[in-house]
Design goal:
The complex is a heterotrimer of chains A (115), B (149) and C (88). Chain B is an all-alpha fold and 149 residues long. Helices cover 60% and strands 0% of the residues of chain B. Chain B contains four helices and no strands. The radius of gyration of chain B is 18 Å and the shape is elongated. Chain C has one domain. In chain C, helix 3 packs across helix 4. In chain C, 33% of the residues are buried. Classes of the chains: A mainly alpha (115), B mainly alpha (149), C mainly alpha (88).
């Protein structure tokens, strides 16, 4: 009996990422915080679809009469992972450009729009 | 990198590519699929980038872009194949022919020649992810530093 | 002063998230699973695939995958636009 512990653990992961997002000034660490939030949300989605005693929803060599976990959250998590990867690549590209122009990774120094 | 890393990379890159192809090919039977296999194959590009440096993989940039475009176009064309019924309908499943073998209901041993358009879409998306991630990594390796480098 | 406001907001958000997660339904007993039971039962007959997740990604919810491929394409274009040499 583990109750709600997996959901709470996912939310702790989201809060760790939010802490890094709010109180770090290094832009690379902010990107890492965004990734931690994203992983927490992905874990939460997968944990939402778990059925007690369920197996992976694949029929190849599955034991007969086994109960399967819900497949839709897993499919949506797959989509979410790839989109997160694309946004991470874009964020890191912007960090590279900011460092190239400002010679610094401090988020507070990026205050004007031009240049 | 040192000669040890280069030698190990030369040995490991074909193995990683074959494993990515296996994950894509068996995407409709075992855990895995287009995205996962494409990401596994793209990790071979990362290994090449780390071991041999950015100038060695520079000429891979244009093929990766073409690969991503072809993957996307193939995906949309496969979606249009089912247009007699609906968009994204699985028009090849159970028709005989390519990937058209009927599948028994319930747990079975897995038939590779089944799935209809799903394995073909797996290949399209796999090449798309390989091309996209490979192009992103080559771009970061080429232009990721400062200008004075 | 401003920093304390941020800390208080963070604590409120943390309390809401943790309380909401702790008061959710028990782990492993989803309440609404009609659609997923349909997918598990009929994906072999309709999509001819043993892997139900692949059947959902490429057959039942193909539009999601199409949009996701578009996002990936856009991200690659964005990286290629941002990371280039501005001076020849």
């Amino acid at each position: 009996m583990i109750g709600n512990v997996p959901f709470v653990v996912c939310m702790v992961l989201v809060l760790l990422g939010l802490w890094a997002l709010l109180f770090r000034r290094n832009l690379v660490k902010i990107v890492i915080g965004v990734k931690i939030i994203e992983n927490g949300v992905n874990l939460y989605l997968v944990a939402t679809g778990y059925v007690r005693g369920g197996i992976v929803p694949i029929y190849t060599y599955a034991p007969p009469d086994a109960v399967m976990v819900l497949p839709t959250p897993q499919a949506l998590t797959l989509t979410s992972i790839v989109i997160g990867l694309a946004t991470t690549a874009l964020m890191l590209a912007f960090v590279v450009v900011i460092h190239r122009h400002k010679k610094s990774l401090d988020g507070r120094k990026v205050t004007e729009l031009s240049g | 990198m040192s000669v040890v890393v280069k030698t190990i990379a030369r040995i490991l890159v074909p193995v990683i590519l074959v494993f990515g192809g296996y994950v894509i090919l068996h995407g409709h039977l075992t855990p895995g699929g287009g995205f996962q296999g494409g990401a596994v194959a793209a990790s071979a590009v990362a290994l090449l980038l780390v071991a041999f440096g950015a100038p060695a993989v520079k000429r891979l940039k244009a093929p990766f872009s073409v690969l991503e475009d072809l993957g996307g176009i193939a995906f949309v064309v496969l979606a249009f194949l089912g247009l007699g019924f609906t968009f994204f309908a699985n028009s090849l499943a159970g028709m005989g022919g390519l990937f058209g073998a009927p599948v028994p209901t319930g747990p079975n041993a897995g038939i590779l020649n089944s799935g209809g358009t799903v394995p073909l879409m797996n290949w399209a998306v796999g090449f798309k992810v390989l091309g996209g991630l490979g192009a992103v990594m080559v771009l970061f390796g080429l232009f990721g530093g400062d200008d004075d480098r | 002063m401003r920093r304390w406001g941020v800390v208080v907001t963070f604590l409120i958000v943390a309390g809401c998230l943790l309380l909401g997660a702790a008061r959710m339904r028990p782990f492993g007993a989803p309440r609404y699973d009609l659609m997923d039971r349909y997918f598990n039962a009929f994906s072999q007959r309709e999509a001819a695939t043993n892997n139900v997740v692949t059947a959902i990604v490429f057959d039942y919810r193909g539009y999601d995958t199409l949009g996701e491929a578009t996002v990936l394409f856009t991200a690659v274009i964005g990286v290629a636009l941002v990371l280039r040499r501005l001076t020849r």
